[in-house]
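Q: How do we represent a protein-ligand complex in a form that can be generated token by token?
A: Start from the inputs.
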Amino acid sequence: MFDDLSSKLQSTFKTLSGQSKITELNIAEAVREIRRALLDADVNYEVAREFTKKVKDQALEQDVLTSVSPGQLFTKIVYDELTQVLGGKQEEIRFATTPPTVILIAGLQGSGKTTFTGKLAKYLKSKGRNPLLAAADVYRPAAVEQLKTLAEQIKVPVYSIEEKDAVRTAREALQFARSNAHDVLIIDTAGRLHVDEKMMAEVSEIKKAVQPNEILFVVDSMTGQDAVNTAREFDKTIDFDGVVLTKLDGDTRGGAALSIRNVVEKPIKFISMGEKLDSLTPFFPDRMAQRILGMGDVISLVEKAQQEFDEKEAKQLQQRITSDKFDLEDFHKQINQIKKMGSLKDLAGMIPGVSQKLKDTEIDDNALDPIEAIINSMTPDERRNPHILNASRKRRIASGSGTSVRAVNDLLKQFSQMKKMMKTMTKMSKMGRAMQGLKNLTGRP
Amino acid sequence: MSFLEKLGFKKKEERLKEGLEKSRTGLLSKLGKAVIGKDTVDEEVLDELEEVLITSDVGVSTTLKIIRRIEERVKKDKYLNTSELQRILREEIIALLRENDTDKPAEFEAATPAKPHVIMVVGVNGVGKTTTIGKLAWHYKQAGKNVLLGAADTFRAAAVNQLTIWSERAGVPIIQQGQNADPAAVAYDTVAAAKSRGADVVLIDTAGRLHNKKGLMDELSKIKRVMSKIVPEAPHEVLLVLDASTGQNAMQQAKAFTEAVDITGLALTKLDGTAKGGIVIGISSELNVPVKYIGVGEQAADLQVFDRVGFVNALFDKS
Ligand SMILES: Nc1nc2c(ncn2[C@@H]2O[C@H](COP(=O)(O)OP(=O)(O)OP(=O)(O)O)[C@@H](O)[C@H]2O)c(=O)[nH]1
Ligand SMILES: Nc1nc2c(ncn2[C@@H]2O[C@H](COP(=O)(O)OP(=O)(O)OP(=O)(O)O)[C@@H](O)[C@H]2O)c(=O)[nH]1
Ligand SMILES: [Mg+2]
Ligand SMILES: [Mg+2]
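Then emit the structure tokens for the protein with guanosine-5'-triphosphate bound:
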């Protein structure tokens, strides 16, 4: 696959280094690579064709700057365009002026609707709302029990009736919400195929009966070429307001996101990153663009790095990494910066060639908070020489940081993993691949 | 109209065709358009073919493989017409799809070589594992087999309830230890019960898991391992369920599940939509594993034994 698209592009453009303009002829290979990367990422065939054409036209107008290589320039054009198409402004749920706000959840079978219903309820509850859930999937075996089980975990009530009547369930749930001071009603519906006329008529009926303020279309991020057909049909029938992309904790490139954005101009409002109810996240178009391109994006690394890194510190850091002196003290400093920049994995993934390797290393971002506490409880000496940490020191640190010895051990393990990763990055840079990125990190030409 | 048809049961071929209707017409009209007025298969036709295959989720590399082989044949015998092109295409794709392993029969009536014949069902979240088990149970039961279900998805909310309802629909017993029980223990107990009861077929449901989660994949290997403590060859079949609407990620799924539990067959679900499920062509060929079943709906009867010739014919045939 094309895990390091940008390095391919770099070599494609090596032949270009003496030339000052991107031309139809010298860009052809790169355009092909981009198109294939998009298709490998499940971007719809037609959408990929249009997209590459647009990017090519843009690139043709550009002069090759002396400061960036043509490869980098083209990469950035692709990335910027993709981010723009995916993005627009961040959009939230639209709440009703007079409660309850009614939110309708719809989508194909198994896409993650019921799980998302639970996640959204939890999210809204944490924002001080008082949601009610409606179990309007009257077909799938144990669908109601599933929703009830999830709702119980977050102490949110579920409205359901004995009769297998989805429209009535929704209507009555709305009545119930009104008379019981629920300010949000989330309606979980059965999975349905866009070609199933009867089922599409049903969801249309539900919409008519409860007049939702917000209709969300839930899509599995692993969806392939067919995403355009389903999104288009659902949009035709229920004119949804936003898209939820699920199962992004997998390793799919998620090209469906681009396809859907292209055929229905609706924002992606949430992404779902796990089976547990707390893994609901807002959508970031730039991260998605990187993911779809499956590349360590040199330009993006440069940009992010320039924003967040202090130049001098970065220089020191690079030296410490290359001379293998990176210790827990440095780690501590980095944590704060990494937190500002987004996820550790994302960050490392921006360096060409590293993302593939990282799949084998498990790096958990949530682990950052206790890590800070633990490092804070260490003496400077311990931070510099973690190998002196014996059992009694570990116990002291554990109690000082309000964690456990196990957490301390986990941290040490994680730290050594990170060091390993850093070494990989350094090795890569020695091979000249990530060099560009690291050089730019330090601001040197 | 037969009595069964009146009751709403359709003949096998009809269901298969119905499920594949959309893809068939789409493909044909495109191929037709590409060849009308031409007596050779030119560049343009091959471009069209590329589009048809890619939009069926066949994937770039498998598509290129198919096109290259067609190009070679076009080079050899210069004047191909539409029907010849279709025939060649059919042949090439059939050749890529692996044939069913006779040791692990997919036909429900066939005698199982082992008793109990243990089938473990795996896959990522929401692809249709539990439903496929419900359908398989129903079909085996219809074929007169003694079936036992094992509810080893103890994680997903109400997963045990869901499988229990399917066991009632199919009229077969189920071994379950409730939510949050140890899935390996459930699998172990199910195979043990099957052995002592003399069941013919055991179907083990497992929780959906993304293939990139190492811990969960290890758990799956363990579930598989414990069963062999009772029946050394068990599970005789490890069925990977793939959702037909899944794109290129299905290849990663198939590779990771093969590595963890050595899959022996594929089940392709949700072919009643407009998704083509073309990804199975590449998977079947690369991993040397046959597609065994297809799912064409949410009811018990909506499952068919995969027939590669029929599958490809249904994609390309006119009538
Ligand atoms: N890994 C992962 N699994 C998810 C995510 N969202 C949902 N799931 C899982 O996907 C499977 C299907 O989720 P459901 O919420 O039941 O999907 P649904 O759309 O309600 O399904 P139907 O009602 O049958 O159409 C379950 O196993 C969920 O736990 C996610 O973001 N990541
Ligand atoms: N249209 C259609 N729907 C299907 C088919 N197979 C399964 N489904 C539906 O897909 C959804 C998910 O099916 P399940 O059997 O729960 O999937 P699973 O893989 O067991 O899901 P988890 O255990 O949550 O990972 C349900 O709504 C099923 O009714 C099929 O062949 N066609
Ligand atoms: Mg559901
Ligand atoms: Mg299941």
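Residues 146 and 199 of chain B are 5 Å apart (CA to CA). Chain B touches chain A through 47 residues (CB under 8 Å).
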